[in-house]
Amino acid sequence: MLTLASQILRTDVSGMPLEWITYQDAVRLYYLGQVVYSCGSLLYRVRGGYNAKSGLRSVIELNSIIATEGSVQAVMKGRNGYVPPLDNKALFRRDDFLCLYCGEHYSSSRLSRDHVTPISQRGQDVWNNVVTACKRCNNYKAGRTPEQAGMELLAIPFIPTHAEYIYLKGRRILADQMEFLRAHFPRTSPLRDRKVKVYTVEGPGRH
């Protein structure tokens, strides 16, 4: 079901995913003339004021994906070596809300960030040294490596690309947006074949 919280996927002119934006942000980009083209499902019809001469009311149709004029920031995010900011929401989603020690799925409130090589042993708080762990496993592991604690790590932590990070930060992702993002995932990405809940559009919202 379409709500005001439904997000629009913004890309650059070449189609590289940039960020999620609100419909208000999209209207502003149209007003500034920065939208080059759009694709995907029609999400909203936003009605503006009436033209004094013609008497016609302005209407902006907003699709689920819009391409805008590029920027240096977009180029930097597309380069090898780009590292997205680390936060628990994206981390838990990267690991599919799975404790990478006991192999059980949990809600966010029962999960924690574990450092494979502990900070106390000169480990770093970076993507390829952190995994999702339930609080019980994390407490048991304490300040030890998995080997020291006799625990098996079920998957190797990885650094998401920018396109993967956008997926990890999204909410209520539409089917066409997910298909678009997947096309930008690396072929070896663990996220590429993951079954995820996606949403469809029953009809455009009007504002």
From TrEMBL:
Molecular function (Gene Ontology), one example: endonuclease activity
Signal peptide (residue range): none
Keywords (A to Z) from UniProt: Endonuclease, Hydrolase, Nuclease
UniProt domain HNH nuclease: residue ranges: 86-139
Pfam families listed in its UniProt record: HNH_5 (PF14279)
PANTHER family, alphabetized: OS07G0170200 PROTEIN (PTHR33877:SF2), SLL1193 PROTEIN (PTHR33877)
Protein name, per record: 5-methylcytosine-specific restriction endonuclease McrA
Organism: Natronocella acetinitrilica
